[in-house]
Amino acid sequence: MVMTTDVADQGGEEAPAPRRRGRPRVRRELVEREIKENATRLFAEKGVAGTTLQDIAEATGLTRQAVYHYVANKDELFAQLVSEIAEEPAQLLHQVNAMSHLGPREKLQRMSEALAVQQMRNGDRFRLMIRSESDLPEALAASYAASRRAVLKELITVIDNGIEVGVFRSVNPRTAALGVVGMLNWIAWWHQPGDDENAVAAELADMAVRSVLSDEPPSSIPSVPRLIRSMRQELDQLDRMLGTGPDPR
């Protein structure tokens, strides 16, 4: 006798359909994003002090009680916005700088494009950051300052490397990096939603590269600072091998 496992053998009841676990998570992410977008707009328009959680709830189409499922309070929401917009640029630039197959010119191009696109896609948040910078709580201000230093460091590194190999002109790397940052920071104030983001980013990145690009072709001869650094490393290694290095005392 053949055993079967169809619906009739199970008393005619259909097995319940499997639950899709991804839906609640996707909905939560969508609601959180909408809350943050509305909060950013209201903070920029009315200031953080002049905006209430009730204002944010109404703009999002939720009750105040419903908003508490996603955020504890207004200050926590503001802190999240600051952290996200402050930390991401440095992370993006660090990833580009770690691409060893790219030269300094290509790295600066990609870095500038990444910063430009981020500015265009998060204009409200950047404007909010600039307007609120002087009013940030101490911890947030310190975090924001550290992120800005990290962005500057990544740009200085790639510009310095470009100067060393002769791709970029002999400029002050820090001044040049600040110039690039200053140019790109203004995007949040003039960018229009209808603009082609990729085209605008590419054009601005090209300007950033040309501002430091050398008029002469790169020389295969290492620069003097590079030669000195290489010689010092080789001498240090020789000292360690011969045991003739400086007395650690």
From TrEMBL:
PROSITE patterns: HTH_TETR_2. The keyword Transcription applies. Residues 1-25 are annotated as: Disordered. One of its GO terms (molecular function) is DNA-binding transcription factor activity. It comes from Gordonia spumicola. Residues 29-89 form the HTH tetR-type domain. Residues 52-71 bind DNA. Pfam families: TetR_C_24, TetR_N. InterPro entries: Homeodomain-like_sf, HTH-type_TetR-like_transc_reg, HTH_TetR, KstR2_TetR_C, Tet_transcr_reg_TetR-rel_C_sf. This is HTH tetR-type domain-containing protein. Keywords: DNA-binding, Transcription, Transcription regulation.
